[in-house]
Amino acid sequence: MSGARATGKSLMLAAAKAQLELLVERHHRSALRGIGETERIFYDTYTRRLQEERQLLAPTASIGDDQTTAREPLMFGFTEVMPDNTRRSRVLVMRDVAGEDLEDKRDLALSFFSRADAVIALLDPLKVPAIRHMLSDAVPSDSRVGGDGTAVLQHLLSLMTGKKVGARTGIPLAVVLSKFDTMQELRRVEGTEWSRIMNRPGSPLQRDPSLRSAWFDAADADLLHMEVRALLDRLEATGVTAMIEESAESYRYFAVSALGASPEGEMLHSGGMAPFRVLDPFKWALQVAG
């Protein structure tokens, strides 16, 4: 999990874990089990604050912080039912990397990016001034809008290639437009091109089928990939897409909301968490890992 500060990495990870539990129970007739200290770390870092205190998560501590849990990967095991009805054991290992570490280029501690099976990189649409302006009345002001996502993505791609100049990475890269509930609010901004774009019937941006099947749905993902790619162009993020397409051999675009609605200050929305498409990048990562 990577991205600049305040892109929502930890929230997405927490929401995905809950959704993965449902997916594994429903389709694989198994249970998602924490390995080693994972359950304790996950409860202390994510579950207690979100589910019991109903507060937003604190920023992920730097890998150099003595009190951080970021040095410990989160490991979950489950049994997967294959299409031919055979079963096999899977282990999902996730790292929640502080945006501060990527922004400050603490590379000695981040070499694992060059050995990952897949990387999920988050981009925050609220970093686009035009979007923030249009949503100024619809979305609460976010004091946690983070660092330069483009610069972080550029550095991330360098880490994924082992910092080889001009190299392309073969590690699959999921590029996620995060906090997508803010983009969905554009449906209510009447008389604008964005309202027409976000209200298109049949768009994959209007639905979340991720819990309907056990495996990655390539047809649905292809439509989503093209929609998000077009959105990035409209957000004038052509520098981002050019960088990705130049440096990554395998990549897909996704749109995700971990919360489903903007928080109320430091508290979750009164309606609780309603994740949108958070499983998509994880299902893709599991597929490309084999």
Strand-helix topology:
Layout lengths: L1 E2 L5 H20 L4 E2 L3 H15 L21 E8 L5 E8 L4 H5 L15 E5 L5 H6 L14 H12 L12 E5 L2 H5 L8 H6 L19 H17 L3 H10 L3 E5 L23 H11 L1
Parallel strand pairs: 1-5, 5-6, 6-7
Antiparallel strand pairs: 2-3, 3-4
Helix pairs in contact: 5-9
Structure report:
This protein has 290 residues and is α/β, with parallel strands linked by helices. The chain has one domain (2-289). It is 37% helix and 12% strand. The protein is built from ten helices and seven strands. Strands 1-5-6-7 form a four-stranded parallel sheet, with helices on both faces. A hairpin with a 5-residue loop joins strand 3 and strand 4 (87-94). Helix 5 (149-160) runs parallel beside helix 9 (238-247). The protein is globular. The mean pLDDT is 87.
* Total number of helices: 10
Biggest β-sheet description: 4 strands, parallel
Q: How do the helices and strands follow one another from N- to C-terminus?
A: EHEHEEHEHHEHHHHEH
Q: Structural class given helices, strands, pairing?
A: alpha/beta
* Total domain modules: 1
Estimate the mean pLDDT confidence: 87
Distance between the termini: 19 Å
Helix content: 25-40%
Rg: 18 Å
> Strand content of the residues, in percent?
5-15%
**Widest β-sheet, arrangement of strands:** 1-5-6-7
Give a count of the beta strands, DSSP E runs of length 2 or more.
Answer: 7
- Poorly predicted runs of 5 or more residues: none
Q: What is the molecular shape?
A: globular
